[in-house]
């Protein structure tokens, strides 16, 4: 979520590990940001929760090399304490609304669930 724009969604087919997340940062993120102005991209911050794959050595090395001083989260320029009472924009509005919309209908397969998620995203 960037301002009034929703970027994504990105659905990874494999279990998210540091290696898979790094691959996304190096190869998939630029595709997600192609409609975002360069001035905005060069000034944006990355906010991470405490998911372990966000903080593997290779991921941190990548962030330090590509977006140094523009991180929000554990060990970043702007620290985000664990279990912070401050909500991110995604926590505050998007995830709860999406969850309500997605779980209105029962699905039987992963493909049905992914289709439903994409439909809800498209409706935003």
How would you describe this structure in keywords?
mainly alpha; globular; 124 residues
- For the residues shown, what is the average pLDDT? 83
* Unreliable stretches: none
Distance between the termini: 12 Å
What's the tally of helices? 6
Describe the structure.
It is a single chain. This protein is mainly alpha-helical. It has two domains: 1-83, no CATH class; 87-124, no CATH class. Helix content is 46%, strand content 3%. The chain contains six helices and two strands. It has helices at residues 18-27, 29-32, 38-43, 57-66, 89-102, 110-122, and strands at residues 46-47, 71-72. The chain has a two-stranded parallel sheet with strand order 1-2. α4 (57-66) links the parallel β1 and β2. The chain is globular and about 45 Å long. The relative contact order is 0.13. The model has no long low-confidence stretch (mean pLDDT 83).
List strands and helices in order, with pairings.
Layout: H1 18-27, H2 29-32, H3 38-43, E1 46-47, H4 57-66, E2 71-72, H5 89-102, H6 110-122
Parallel strand pairs: 1-2
Helix pairs in contact: 1-4
Care to give the gist of this entry?
This protein has 124 residues and is mainly α. Helices cover 46% and strands 3% of the residues.
């Amino acid at each position: 979520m960037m301002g009034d724009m929703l970027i994504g969604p990105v659905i990874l087919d494999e279990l998210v590990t540091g290696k898979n997340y790094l691959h996304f940062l190096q190869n998939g993120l630029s595709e997600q940001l192609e409609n975002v102005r360069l001035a905005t991209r060069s000034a944006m911050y990355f906010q991470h929760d405490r998911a372990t794959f966000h903080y593997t050595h290779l991921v941190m090395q990548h962030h330090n090399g590509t977006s140094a001083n523009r991180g929000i989260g554990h060990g970043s320029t702007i620290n985000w304490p664990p279990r912070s009472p401050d909500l991110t924009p995604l926590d505050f509005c998007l995830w709860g609304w999406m969850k309500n919309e997605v779980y209105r209908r029962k699905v039987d397969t992963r493909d049905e669930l992914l289709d439903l998620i994409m439909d809800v995203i498209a409706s935003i």
